[in-house]
Amino acid sequence: MQLQNKKIIQLVSDDFEDLELWYPVLRLREEGATVHIVGEKKGEQYIGKYGVPIVSDLSFQEIEPNDYDAILVPGGWSPDKLRRYEEVLHMVKTMDDQQKPVGQICHAGWVLISAKILEGKKVTSTPGIKDDMTNAGAIWLDEAVVVDGHLISSRRPPDLPDYMREFIKVLSK
């Protein structure tokens, strides 16, 4: 239970990639972390791309990022929705400013692009948004997981074990 005193924000909106949201949540909870599911509305049910639901614990407006140790952005199509909320961008920017772990997988890079935190950072993502990432100033690598300080990025569901191993390492420091 190496993460017993850690609190993590797991962002959510409809059309998240089911495994890219649920796998990190379950792994972090196994390690003793408190993971809050945070969406536009508290108590709202959100549906993943493949039909797996999740209910939000809190709304974006209820979150004070300073009270948390890390943030996770899921992949799927939800990042295109999440990046439209100023509260989401504020959470990501705050975590970045404080050098707290920011995890992103697959299309989640869109949120980091909109938060304008990728200039000069080494990252990966689904190859489908490689151009978006590099146009935002990132150094894109085609690897299962890339760690650049407090930023932990991954490509897609088969990379989840590598992604979470590295995210937990960074969060444990």
From TrEMBL:
InterPro entries: C56_PfpI-like (IPR006286), Class_I_gatase-like (IPR029062), DJ-1/PfpI (IPR002818). The keyword Protease applies. Coiled coil: none annotated. GO terms for biological process: proteolysis. Residues 6-169 form the DJ-1/PfpI domain. Keywords: Hydrolase, Protease. Gene3D superfamilies: 3.40.50.880. GO terms for molecular function: peptidase activity. It holds the Pfam family DJ-1_PfpI. It comes from the Bacteria. The keyword Protease applies. PANTHER family: DJ-1 PROTEIN (PTHR42733), DJ-1_PFPI DOMAIN-CONTAINING PROTEIN (PTHR42733:SF13). Belongs to the peptidase C56 family. This is Protease I. It comes from Litchfieldia salsa. The lineage of its organism: Bacteria, Bacillati, Bacillota, Bacilli, Bacillales.
